[in-house]
From TrEMBL:
This is Spectinomycin 9-adenylyltransferase. InterPro entries: AadA/Aad9, AadA_C, NT_sf, Polymerase_NTP_transf_dom. GO terms for molecular function: adenylyltransferase activity; ATP binding. Gene3D superfamilies: Beta Polymerase, domain 2. It comes from Pullulanibacillus camelliae. It catalyses: spectinomycin + ATP = 9-O-adenylylspectinomycin + diphosphate. Keywords: Antibiotic resistance, ATP-binding, Nucleotide-binding, Nucleotidyltransferase, Transferase. One of its GO terms (biological process) is response to antibiotic. The lineage of its organism: Bacteria, Bacillati, Bacillota, Bacilli, Bacillales. Residues 32-71 form the Polymerase nucleotidyl transferase domain.
Length: 265
């Protein structure tokens, strides 16, 4: 079963409250706001597999000492029990928008080993003050403005700029290209992401992965619907509920890529 913030179980809300408190204690008076995006904000959050997606905004850039404290905090709380994907941006970065967007700190499980190594060895290979950018932030901020939930601080429309459509499209198409290549490796995420990019490019709809899957069930040809139904079932229930054949994934991938190509002609 999947949820949105209003309907999610109490343990999810308690976990998010713990995140807020911990971050607030580390940032002190630098806090501008804490904002949910992704599946927990839009619907489709699966406690068994979904990340908690968050953007945090601060008044000024974070110093390295604060980044290291944040890394220690997330290494303990992320995946206990829910994985966290979170980015920290400051007001100057948002007020002077550029794509790809600069950011101060990011944590996801992908970075766990690198942060653990830096902290254990007292090194600064990744936890440093080097300028970093992330093309995905154009998509995250757009989703936050359209579907996000502000849980602390200033209202969303006072914090986040309107992202130019070209930057948003560049952001989602970058992920789309990766999903074309990785659909056999991760059929659930990649299939749903391909569908939602297609939906946006075709009709301008900013959707969750679950909403995109449901749209595919309603609009895709009958020969594709069996695959989409399996993908949606795996996403909303158990990820291993069904297996996928290469031929069916290639058919879905080709159907979407061909239609997106025709939209650009």
């Amino acid at each position: 079963m999947t949820y949105q913030w209003r309907t999610c179980p109490s343990d999810v809300k308690h976990f998010v409250a713990h995140l807020q408190r911990g971050i607030s204690e580390i940032l002190y008076n630098e806090y501008v706001g804490f904002y949910l995006h992704g599946s927990l904000a839009m619907g489709g959050f699966n406690p068994l597999s979904s990340d908690i997606d968050v953007l945090v905004v601060t008044k000024t850039s974070l110093v390295v000492a604060i980044k290291r404290e944040l890394a220690k905090f997330f290494l303990v709380c992320s995946h206990s029990p829910f994985p966290v994907e979170i980015s920290f941006l400051n007001e100057e970065q948002l007020n002077n928008w550029q794509h790809p967007c600069p950011f101060d700190f990011h944590f996801s499980e992908f970075w766990r080993a690198s942060y653990e190594k830096d902290l254990a060895n007292g090194t600064y290979h990744v936890l440093n003050d080097a300028r970093k950018t992330d093309a995905d932030l154009a998509a995250h901020i757009t989703v936050t403005r359209h579907r996000g939930i502000g849980l602390k601080g200033k209202p969303i429309d006072q914090v986040f700029p309107v992202i130019p459509r070209a930057d948003y499209v560049a952001s989602i198409v970058n992920d789309y290209q990766e999903c074309l290549e990785r659909i056999e490796e991760d059929p659930i995420y990649c299939s749903l992401n391909l569908i939602r990019v297609f939906w946006y490019l075709k009709e301008g709809v900013i959707a969750s992965k679950q909403e995109a899957g449901n749209w595919g069930l309603l609009t895709f040809p009958e020969e594709m619907q069996r695959t989409v139904k399996k993908v949606v079932a795996c996403y909303t229930k158990e990820r291993e509920a069904y297996s996928f054949e290469k031929d069916e994934l290639m058919a879905l991938k080709n159907y979407i890529s061909n239609h997106i190509q025709s939209l650009n002609e």
